[in-house]
Amino acid sequence: MSTTPITNNWRNYFVNPDEGMGTTYERVVLHGYFARFKSRYDVRAILEAPSFGMTGISGINSLWWARHGTAVTVVDQCLERLEAAQDVWKSTGLKAAFVYQPATTAVLPFADCSFDMAWNFAALWHVKDGETYLKELARVAKRALFVCVPNPENVSWATRPDNPTDVDLNHIRPEWITSSLAACGWCPVETGYLDVPPWPHIELRKEEMLRRVRLAWLAKIIEAKNGGLCIVDYFKGRSPGMERQLLKYSFLEHAPGWLKRLWAHHRFLLFEMK
User: Which of 4, 25, 61, 257 could form a disulfide with 164 if both were Cys (CB 3.0 to 4.6 A apart)?
Assistant: First the structure.
């Protein structure tokens, strides 16, 4: 059975934290959604579960929430990865609670309605018992659920060199997610596409992609200018202009729906209780 790059390589990002332009871009795009949801739901306590799903440094998607005064809890089903993420958080001076959940269970160790909002990003397809996991998220959240999944409608999906075979593709189907949460009394109030940069959705750092299409000169310019990209530098205050610079590539985030469906790297679903 083949494995995806993230399944194999997550440790590497803790050693060499250069996440590349693509991963860093999707993180800053999420910040705009977070700002809107924090205001809309008065989010004071948030759960990210499970936290493992995307390339780059694992377990740090919720740094934005902590910076903006929200109590953050991060769940991971790998103790080694959770401890590594905790060290990265400490380096930023931001705080979160870190909870280990064995991969053999989908039950979350929290009381009902413990969090204003629960969310995850490209993580559900790594979970073995996805239906139970969604029910658990619905149980512990009281105001909103925010779920992001990879977009297989993207025109680049079939050409990705490492289309996953060790994950459950059913768990990224919006219809399945909506049906599972409907049984728990939650309904979608907003759905759409996000992470729509001008580059294709392929399992390569965008700088490496430029090299492969004989644009090495452009890759060198980007790398020289950025010196390696990592969202942690933004939260440490070392690169305060990082978010502004990357959002220059966000013009397609407001493109017509048909175009976003074919080009967006991810879909999102926002749920509230009926």
Answer: 4
Q: Give residue-wise pLDDT tens across range 211-226.
A: 665 556 555 655 555 5
Residue 248 domain boundaries? 5-273
Kindly tell me the burial class for residue 89, based on how many C-beta atoms sit within 10 Å of its own C-beta (0-12, 13-18, 19 or more).
Answer: buried
Q: How many domains does the chain have?
A: 1
- For 107-128, the pLDDT digits (tens) are 999 999 999 999 999 999 999 9
Look at residues 35, 26, 85, 23 and name the one whose alpha carbon lies nearest to residue 64: 35
Please give the Cα distance from 38 to 18 (Å, whole number): 29
Question: At a CB cut-off of 8 Å and minimum separation 6, what does 261 contact?
Answer: 151, 153, 193
What's at 9, amino acid-wise? N
Q: How many angstroms separate the CA atoms of 173 and 150, rounded?
A: 9
CATH number of the domain that residue 137 is part of: 3.40.50.150
* Alpha carbon 68 to chain centroid, angstroms: 18
- Separation between Cα atoms, residue 262 and residue 155, nearest integer Å: 6
